[in-house]
Amino acid sequence: MVDGHGISRRALLAGAGAGLAGWGLPGVAAARGTGGTVAVLGGGVAGLTAAHELAERGFAVTVYERRALGGKCRSIPVDGTGRGGRRDLPGEHGFRIFFGFYQDLPDTLRRIPFPGNPNGVHDNLVTATEFLASFAGGREDLLLPLTPPGGLPDRLTPELFLRQVRAAVESAFHLPPHEAAVFAQRMLVYLTSCEERRLEQWEHTTWPDFLRARGKSEDYQRIFVYGPTRVLSSTRTDNASAHTAGIVAEQVLFTLLGRGGEGPLDRVLNLPTNEAWIDPWERHLRGLGVGFRLGWSVEDLVVDRGRVAAARVRDPRGRAEAVHADYYVCALPVDHARRVWNADLLAAEPRLRAAATLETQWMTGLMLYFDRPTPLAHGHVYYIHAPWSLTSISQAAFWPGRDFRADYGDGTVADCVSVVISDWDEPGVLFGRPARQLTEEQVVQEVLAQLDLHLNDTGRPVLDRSSLVTWFLDPGVSGLGGPNPVNADELVVQPVGSWRRRPTARTSVPNLFLAGDYVRAPINGASMEAANSTARLAVNALLDEAGSDAHRAVVHELYRAPEFELLKAEDRVHHLLRLPNAFDVVPLP
Which residues are in coiled coils (predicted)? Predict the structure, then answer.
């Protein structure tokens, strides 16, 4: 596969000062290390991964983070809610899923020590065994097991794949046979498409068009079209890239078929994120000599003679400083990174002009705390007809080492239903307005109304709203109810054609490297795995620039079914001859 900059995927996986006198006091991008000094700008998953890999290889690393370590993946304690020696209630930006097809992030988790765990933080992952598709309008909900079916074949053939996927879709979601056949065939087309076709055709095809969504049932569209776009990546469905959505759907299918997964499809942490992961990670990195500057915001990068000479930062007291290092890893989210990509940097690295135009959307969490257990499912719930594309998970069932009443809050909270709002622009059912036009209290009422229409619509109340004790909305969202609401943590999305705008980890500035889920990665979507993978790519590029003989960080390729490799090779010939994929012409019933 050749990307827009002429860099092959294999190459991507393999590796892919002086003018500030008087501006401010020099910062120290140091700790111990012999490989040189590195300033990591941003302390989310990408920044912490880069710091981890570099510190293990002898570099002196300092991380600059404006708010708190962990970025979008951190826990956010609800200040002032703890009583009687209990911790504050655990809040978060939104729940997270550790998909079984992730490879790089699980490797990092194994290398973070955790007391009593032979495999470190990785042992804090627990399996979500169910998925609940909740329908509105009086329809019974579908509770689906997430374990691979027994008797899976050792070898897949196109015919067998079509039969298995069609049967699974028909039986699980009760779709009409002809729609199940269409979905199975479209997935076979994607699985057998060569890399060139994926980038040159499917990248410029919308996911609805790829799945032939026009004229299909509402269930087909909401489950298979809207699900992978709005719910998983917050991308507007009408222009979502089939390339990105196809990769995710492909890996989900393979994992469900027992192929290539590092673990079960759906896993979550067995404690609040900071307790299970971020705090142990910080302790481990400090032990490796990594320095942290928390509350320090990055404001600018100074370019001198084609290199980054310094990073302009502001400390927690508002004082300006200049940070000097041998190398810089920009691990800021793209909506923050483009603010520090100034004219001098854009002149030195013109490709960042396109990256600065990448689109972002709101995707934010709302915590609902109840005075009794609320086990909606032992896993995630997708509310099929919710206009705000809601998903949720009940936390208490996955935290066996914690008792909500004994450990958190004032003793009245027994469970937390963690809800993610993926669509902030669609009118709701209660107020008839989008979420970003409502006050926080109205957002809560609207979410409860949408949950009620799904969970309490069959005469058997599942969610008792009278048991709600309190709620917590991600504080990154501010100004709701006013004319200019703001979200400090937007999510990069993947509309058609956006791959060419995504930068590589290596830039034309020799000592500047990029890490984040907007950077090109094997998994082409906003995720913890992409953040981790791109940090590894940035580290490898830095090692190359430094002439280091340290071993390179492993960046795993996505699983590829060996049975389909010959079909992909044949498709490459078809694509070069401007012919469709061989399975794209099979008559459909």
Answer: none
122 with 280: CB under 8 angstroms?
Answer: no
- Kindly list the distances between the CA atom of residue 205 and the CA atoms of 227, 246, 386, 496, 573, in Å, as whole numbers in the listed order: 17, 11, 26, 6, 20
Average pLDDT over residues 11-25: 33
* Cβ-contact 80, 88 below 8 angstroms: yes
Measured between alpha carbons, how far is residue 396 from residues 137, 268, 399 in Å? 28, 12, 5
Pairing of the two strands 90-92 and 307-314: unpaired
Q: What is the pLDDT of residue 260?
A: 86
Q: Is the pLDDT of residue 589 over 90?
A: no
**Helix H or strand E encompassing 58:** none
**Length, in residues, of the chain:** 589
Q: What span, in angstroms and rounded, lies between the C-alpha atoms of 399 and 395?
A: 7
Choice between 386 and 33, residue whose per-residue pLDDT is larger:
386
The full DSSP string for 219-254 is HHIIIIIIIIIIIHH---GGGBBHHHHHHHHHHHHH
Helix, strand, coil percent content, the chain, rounded in steps of 5: 35, 20, 45
Residue 576 C-alpha from the chain's centroid: 33
Q: Predicted confidence band at 401 (pLDDT cuts at 50, 70, 90)?
A: confident
Helix (H, G, I), strand (E, B) or coil at 358: coil
